[in-house]
Sequence to fold (152 residues):
Amino acid sequence: MGEQFVYVTYIRTTPEKLWNALIQPEFTRKYWVESWQDCEWKVGAVWKLMGPDNQVKDSGQVLEFNPFTRFSVSWRNEFIPAAKAEGYSRASFDLEPDRDAVKLTVTHSFETVGTSLHAGVSDGWPKILSSLKSLLETGDTLDVTRRWPAEA
Fold:
């Protein structure tokens, strides 16, 4: 195994609300730079992260799908040639109830060390997941995650 990026946060919400915010387009567009996931949400289904320009930004396949507790997808960047050439990684999302909150653990795993996608998710996931937390707890997102970056 190469390397992993792991992010853990506690969000004052229910597993159902967090689950819906993670997979439903009307939620992801708010905190994930106007993007959404195009997917049937079952094991083996094609997974695509769509950008605000309706272009596929990342793609893969659903590897695990256990509603309200865990899902994982294979993940390949599609819009940066060098990152696409690095192949697939794996992103897993684990939800665990903890009193009045849900512990969310996002693990993004890479087979090799030093990929450009690892560098990208190390910067991106903290912003996106902090914005998700803000949305669910306050009803508002972080400004940095509201629009697709001009440089991307």
Observations:
- The longest helix spans residues 116-138.
- Helices lie at 15-23, 25-31, 81-85, 116-138.
- The CA atoms of residues 134 and 141 lie 6 Å apart.
- The radius of gyration is 15 Å.
